[in-house]
Design a protein that fits this description.
78% helix, mainly alpha, 8 helices, globular, single chain
Length: 171
């Protein structure tokens, strides 16, 4: 019974954060941020850094890519174990069609992982940029109606854990 009440509250809080159906600048910003955490975007970016980067950047891109790939596998296992449906909505059909499950947020997990790794392995400008950007990606996924707040919090926790493990393994 408690779980049901908690899930209902989660749905209400998430609905209050939603801007997907409201035209304007906030919606446009949320849509850009929601897409900025896409896995294909980061895979391509890390591939380009690895291809054209100096040896230090190649090492960073290679380690980061492996951590992102391992995290993606964990997120998929959890998503298909929990099978929580995404919130109803029109925006984000590509996500709704390719991955109907919302818990945990893979975008939030990936964004936090990237911020953790940039803080440890990257230059300060990259670390600051990703530490600011990462929570905005998670919030934008709620704002666009693709996730509940608890999905994003769970994804962020997974990202922190994965980032910490990646740093330990890389030592």
């Amino acid at each position: 019974m408690r779980l049901r009440r908690w899930l209902e509250a989660d749905a209400r809080w998430s609905q209050r954060c939603r801007v997907a159906e409201r035209p304007g600048g906030l919606r446009s910003l949320a849509a850009v941020l929601a897409h900025s955490g896409d896995s294909w975007f980061w895979a391509a970016g890390l591939g380009l850094v690895w291809w054209w980067g100096d040896p230090a950047w190649k090492l960073w891109a290679g380690r980061t890519f492996l951590a992102v790939a391992a995290l993606a596998a964990v997120v998929l296992v959890v998503k298909f174990g929990v099978r929580r449906r995404r919130p109803e909505g029109e925006w984000g059909a590509i996500y709704r069609n390719t991955d109907p499950h919302s818990f945990p947020s893979g975008h939030a997990a990936r964004a936090i992982l990237l911020a953790v790794l940039a803080a440890a392995w990257g230059p300060p400008w990259l670390a600051i940029s990703l530490v600011v950007w990462a929570p905005l990606v998670g919030l934008s996924r709620v704002a666009m109606g693709l996730h509940y707040l608890s999905d994003v919090l769970a994804g962020a926790a997974l990202g922190l854990i994965a980032g910490s493990l990646a740093l330990i393994i890389a030592l």
